[in-house]
Amino acid sequence: MELAGALRWFFVFLSERRTLQEWVTRNGWVRRAARRFVAGETLEEACDVAARLNAQGRAVTLNLLGERTTRPEDARAAAVLYRKVLEEIHLRRMRADLAVKLTQLGLDLSRELLEETLHGICAQARRLGGSVWIDMEASRYVEATLDLYRGLRASGYGPDTVGVALQAYLYRSERDLEFLLRLGARVRLVKGAYAEPPSVAYPRKADVDRAYVRLLERLLREGEQSAIATHDERILAHARRLATAYGIPPDRFEFQMLYGVRRDLQAQMVQEGYRLRVYVPFGPDWYPYFMRRLGERPANVGFLLRSLVREGP
Questions:
Q1: 218 vs 223: CA distance, rounded Å
Q2: Predicted structure pTM score
Q3: Are strands 59-64 and 187-190 parallel, antiparallel or unpaired?
Q4: CA 239 to CA 189: how far, in whole Å?
Q5: How far is residue 208's CA from residue 186's CA, in Å, rounded to a whole number?
Q6: β pairing state of 132-134 and 253-258
Q7: Distance CA 201, CA 192 (A)
Q8: Could you tell me the maximum CA-CA distance found in the chain, to the nearest angstrom?
Q9: Distance CA 160, CA 50 (A)
Q10: Selection from 169, 234, 175 nearest residue 197 by Cα
Q11: What is the DSSP string of 159-226?
């Protein structure tokens, strides 16, 4: 396994260790370092970050951190807060939407519960003129996620109201993109952040990058309001060249990046006149997300170590 893949696997493994989570989330050094990638633990903190990013010319996607809910009351509580997020976006007139994870809303519990929570959020978004992204999680959830998305579209929720993420590192994603394009879906293309076996996902970064570019090229040609979510400068440059070559106007796609990652590149993209949206997570359940961010890039681990050295014991 190449070094980058081993690093990602290690931090994804750590993200699933509940005993380690208890220690890390109590550690003041790590909590402060996590604020680089997490807007805060409350909706108010997240809205303050969103307003600041809007002022810098960047749109926002807000996400309440949490996944794999095990109690129905927690799934319903998450749905209530998501509807509150939509209300705040509307009241504050923010350039923002939200992203949800289906396991947080009851996917592991029952189809009925998930439909109750998800339809409630989407109905609120449609009523307020907002929009929702459905995040993609581990590979075992992909089929159910796409089925739920197809059900939302059949229930009258259009692509302006609900979109879905697609992970380039899964072998199946080219087939899934075909399905989503036929459906007229709004798609956010990501590389993928979960540890997957080589039987279902490309194990080498170079292969993931090539798969991402193949999907990107088709998405730009045939998609509507597509979202290119990456911090890879070579891929971003390729996407910009393709958009120019295909004559794709800037209002037909946008770039998306993560809060706290490559802030210099985010500023550059906005300065060059491209639409940029920043994924802004918040909430007390930040540990798994933070571990996955550390695993994505060695520079993120370096940031954490420098933060700990600066603060001292």
A1: 8
A2: 0.87
A3: unpaired
A4: 12
A5: 22
A6: unpaired
A7: 9
A8: 56
A9: 21
A10: 169
A11: TTTEEEEEETTBTTHHHHHHHHHHHT--EEEE---S---TTTB--SHHHHHHHHHHHHHHHHHH-SSE
CA–CA separation, 263 and 304 (whole Å): 16
Sort 245 into a burial class: Cβ within 10 Å, 0-12 / 13-18 / 19+.
exposed
- CA 69 remoteness from chain centre: 18
At 292 the pLDDT is: 72
Cα(59)–Cα(36) distance, rounded to whole angstroms? 18
| Cα 12 to Cα 291: distance, rounded to the nearest angstrom | 6
Burial (0-12, 13-18, 19+ Cβ within 10 Å), 271: exposed
The answer to whether 116 and 157 are in contact (CB under 8 A) is no
User: How many residues does the structure list for the chain?
Assistant: 313
Candidates 150, 169, 167; CA nearest to 159 is 150
Q: Tell me the residue type at 28.
A: G
pLDDT at 310 exceeding the cut of 60 = no
Give the end-to-end CA distance of the chain in Å, rounded to a whole number.
Answer: 35
- Written as one string, the DSSP assignment of 231-257 is --HHHHHHHHHHHHHHT--GGGEEEEE
Q: Which helix (H) or strand (E) holds 29?
A: helix 28-34
List, by residue number, the catalytic residues: 135, 188
* Phi-psi region at 277: left, alpha or beta (left = phi > 0; alpha = psi -120 to 50): beta
Tens-digit pLDDT profile for residues 242-281:
999 999 988 889 999 999 889 999 999 999 999 999 999 9
Which residue, chain included where needed, has tokens 């609120």? Answer: 124
| Backbone phi, psi, residue 305, to 5° | -65, -40
Residue 17 identity (one-letter amino acid): R
